[in-house]
Amino acid sequence: MQLLPRSSNLALPRRPLRLLAGAAVAFGIAALVGLVLATILTATSGDSAAPSRVDVWQLLRMTAIQAGLSTLLSLVAGTALAWALNRLRFVGRELVVGLFASAIVTPGLVVAFGLLAIWGRAGWVNQTALALTGQPLEVPLFGLGGILAAHVILDGAFAARILLARLDAVPDLRLKTGQSLGLSAWQRFAIIDWPMLQGAIPGLGAIIFLLAFTSFPIVLLLGGGPANQTLEVAIYAAVRLDFDLRGAVQLALVQIGVCAAVILLATAAAPVSAVTGGSRVSSWRDRGAARALQWLVLALGMAGFGLPLLAVLANGIGPGMASLLVRPGFWHALGTSLGLGAASAILTLLMALTIGTARAAAGTSAARTLIGAPAFAYLAVPAVVLSLGAFLIVRALGAQTEASAAPAVVLLANALMSLPFAVATLGPPLDAVTRSRGKLIRSLGLDGWQQFRDIEWPLVRREAGIVLALAFCFSLGDLGVIALLGTQDFTTLPLLMYRALGAYRTNDAGTIAAVMLLVTIIAFVAIPRLFEVPDARR
pLDDT, tens digit, for every residue of 462-474? Predict the structure, then answer.
C-alpha cells in the first residue's frame, strides 16, 4: 500500500500545479516589493549630499494623531449605527444597509468634494445662512476637522456594516433568553451585544487606522496646508512639488515601518472581511428613550453619509455637464479609468484565485503562510510608497520608458491595493470547499481544472463577483498612484478632477465627481449580480 506523507490531509487531493502557480504569484509579489524597497533604500544612500527639508517627526505625529482620532470616532459612530440598524424595522432598510456597505468603495475624493458642496464657502449650508440671515456661516472645513469628518463618514459607515453583521449573528436562543429575563435596551447591549462586538473591534480598528494613516485624496483636498499634511501627502509633495527625493524616501520608510508594526499587532485579532450582503431583521424591538435614540442615530448617520453623495449628484448633474462632455480629454480620462478598472479587477481576481486555491491545497500551515502572506503587501507598503519606488525605477530608465511604463505600474499597483480584500473574501470559502468536498473530489478522480469548474467555481462565484466589484471601484477612485505617474497623455478621472479643482474649475470637478460616483454605484451593484447563482444549489 502506498503511504502518503504525514503532513498530507487525506481529504485533500494533491495539486502540485496549484502550489507552483500560487508560489510563483507570491514570489513575484514579494520580489516586486523587495525591488521597490531596495530602490528606495538605494536612493536614500545615494543622495546623502542633499539634505532633506521635511520634518519627519512632525509629519509622523500629525498622521498618527489624525489616524488615531479617525479610528476612535469611526468605531464609536459605527457601533452606534450598527446598534440602531439592528433594532429598527422600516421600509427601505435593505437599501440603507447597502448604502453603508458601499462606503468601502466610495472614492474619498468624492466624499471630500461632497462635504465642500454642503459646508464649503459656496455650499448649501452657507448659501442658506446668507439667504436667511445675510451672514455667512463659517465652518472650519479645511484642516483637521474636515479630515476627521470625511474619514468618519467613510470609515464609520464601513464599521457599521461590519459590526451589524456581528449583531445579526447573535443566536435567537440568546435573544429569547434575554427577552424572558426582561433585559432593558442598555442591559441587552452590555450582556448580549458587546461580547459579540468586542471580538471584531481590534481587527476592525487596525484596518480603519491603516486606511486613515494612508489616506491621500481626503487629506490632499481638505488638509488646508502644510500644518495638516500626512505622510502620504508629504511624499507626493516632496516628489511632485519640491523634487526632494531624499525627503520622500525618508517619509516612505517611516510609513512602511508604522504600517508593518500595526499589521503585526493586528495579526492576533480576528480577521475582518468585506460584507456586502443583506442583513437579518432582529425580532428584538426596544421602546421609549432607546428607540428614540436609535432613530436619531440613524438619521444622523444617513445625513452624514448620504447628504455629501446627494450633493455631488445634485451639483454635478446639470446644465454645466454638457460643456464637459464635449471635451475629448474627459472621454479619454473616462476610457482610461474604465480600462484600468476592468483590467485591475480581472488581474486581482486571477491572483486571488491562484493564491486562494494554492493555500487550500497546501498541506502545512507554513506553506499556507508563505503563499498567502505576500498578498497583504499593500497593507504594509501602501500605494503611494509603491508608486514612489516605481517612479524611481522608471526614472532611472529614461523619460521614454517612464511614459510607457506608467500604465502598467498603475495597473499593478491598483491590483495589489485590492488583493488583500480579495484574498480575505475568497480564501475562507475556497478552504471550506476543498476540505468539505476533498474526499468526493478524490473519489471522482477529478483533475485540477475539473475540480475548479464543477465544484469550486459554482460555490465561490458570488464572492468572485464581489471581488471584481471591489477591485474595479478601488481602481476607479484611486488618486494616490496616478498622482505621481500621471501625465497629460495618461490621465484618469480622479486626476482630471484634482486638476480641475487646482484650476478653480469647480463645475467641471463637480461633474467628474458625479460621474465617478454613478459609475461606482452601478459597478458595485451590478457586477456581483452578474455572478449570482441562478438557482438554489448553494
Answer: 889 999 999 999 9
